[in-house]
Amino acid sequence: MSRNLILGTALSSIVVLAAVVSFLWTPYDHAALDIPNKLKPPNATHWLGTDHFGRDMLSMIMVGARTSIAVALVAVGIGMAAGIPLGLTAAARKGSWLDELIMRGNDLVFAFPSLVIAILITAIFGAGAINAIIAIGIFNIPVFARITRGAALSLWEREFIMAARVAGKGTARISAEHILPNIANLLIVQGTIQFSLGILAEAGLSYVGLGAQPPTPSWGRMLADAQTMVSFAPHLALIPGCAIILTVLGLNLMGDGLRDWLDPRIRVART
């Protein structure tokens, strides 16, 4: 097992553990205001200090972790649930009108970044975590569709696929029983990468006010609130910023380690 996988798993596990524990316990109520103790630096009472409303930063970081993880996880799930079947269908129907329709639809979605999609959704339905999930999920669909199609195309000319055709298996059955299992490792790694990008996207959307709304803590909104107070309370920006950096770093290292672990060709090449 590579060092990247071990370190990435350790960092990611810490974040997940903090999010899970926040359902049962936090040092303080994350929404409780304590104005007399506002803008306190890290100390023995508040390990990560307090914000401009006197709220405990550690409690907010813990609850913010579950917000970021939930948004990114559901968004990636939407992307995989819709993108993988589309990619398998496009690969199976290579060169047909259906393949062209799916790929041009992907190009259309790629033309609009997740932030633009979120703005459009927000203009219609209003800001909120659900709309952030929809925006990030929509953007993930063409990512998984393209990767699935590209990986599946290289398998459709292989001998074991031809044997399955001779055995009388249909296109859908071959895709489900033979194509998908052989590209699952690639999709798992890509899912890990998109999960880290989902964390960043959620933070970005919350930063501009399109993500989770108060009183639900969000790392991105914590950064937005801190931008006018960095000079005299730098911990307000450093703490959520470090949380985002460590989470994304951990997920990227884990994805790199999983790629090496699941692909024996890369593992052999590096030994």
From TrEMBL:
- Determine if Nucleotide-binding is one of this entry's keywords: no
Pfam short name (any one): BPD_transp_1
Q: Does the keyword Cell cycle apply?
A: no
ABC transmembrane type-1 domain mapped to chain residues: 65-255
Question: Which controlled-vocabulary keywords does the entry list?
Answer: Cell membrane, Membrane, Transmembrane, Transmembrane helix, Transport
Example GO CC term: the record gives: plasma membrane
TM region(s), chain numbering: 6-28, 67-88, 108-139, 183-212, 232-255
Classify the protein's membrane topology as the record does: Multi-pass membrane protein
**InterPro entries xrefs:** BP-dependent_transpt_permease, MetI-like, MetI-like_sf
Give the highest taxon in the source lineage. Answer: Bacteria
Which processes are annotated in GO (biological process)? transmembrane transport
Q: Where in the cell is it found?
A: Cell membrane
Q: Which SUPFAM superfamilies match?
A: MetI-like (SSF161098)
Q: Which family does it belong to?
A: Belongs to the binding-protein-dependent transport system permease family.
Official protein name in the record: Glutathione transport system permease protein GsiD
Print the organism lineage: Bacteria, Pseudomonadati, Pseudomonadota, Alphaproteobacteria, Rhodobacterales
Q: Which gene encodes it?
A: gsiD_1
